[in-house]
Amino acid sequence: MPTLTDSIRFLVGLCAALSLGVAAAQGGSYEASLSSARLGDTRQLATLLERGIDPDTVDAQGNTLLILAAREGHAATVGALLRFRPRLGARNLAGDSALMLAALKGHEDIVDQLLEAGAPVDHEGWTALHYAAFEGHAGLVDKLLARKADVDARNPAQATALMLAARNGHAEVVRRLLRAGARTELRNDRGQTAEEWARSVGNTDIAALIAAGGAARR
User: Fold this and answer.
1) Residue 103, CA distances (Å) to 97, 112, 129 in order
2) Which residues contact 76 (CB under 8 A, 6 or more apart)?
3) 60, 67, 76, 142: which one has the fewest Cβ atoms less than 10 Å from its Cβ?
4) Where are the alpha helices (DSSP H) in 52-200?
5) Domains in the chain, ordered, with CATH?
6) Nearest alpha-carbon partner for 158 in 203, 124, 120
């Protein structure tokens, strides 16, 4: 006949087994949520979210589910995540937000979704406008400026969007930034203006464009 001690041992063992089972299930759900966001498995991710997975779950690099889905261009997955109200301004260990990476990659539909949901466009360090200008995504530059992005925001090297577009030869972006009032006299941490940086890498047409834009304001 089982003793009281045996019964206690049985209950303790049962609780331990149940705890291990719950932990294993949670661990599996965690990995599955990250994988779903990266791969764009919207159905699986939505199921996990409905079961209680935190929409702000992060991987080892600080990427939230929203950042992963936005970076990889999975618009439907981003839309599903937005229904669970994730932190729109969350940034990973590199300082990138979902909006920034969508802008960098040129995922216009995702940028639209995030802006409509209220994702912040300005903050310290690199911004979505810097990334859009750096890559020459003129349409995204327009969208961000329409949301009152700071046209003269500085990145850690003190470069503005105008400087980055000028350096990389994106004339159409330069024109749009000038029309938006970008300051041409600002200097980066090397002491270069946008015009000087453009000229130093051989983008003389853009340098002339900036010079003309600056002169027109004086």
Assistant:
1) 10, 10, 8
2) 40, 42
3) 60
4) 65-71, 75-82, 98-105, 108-117, 128-135, 138-146, 161-167, 171-179, 194-200
5) 17-120 (1.25.40.20), 121-218 (1.25.40.20)
6) 124
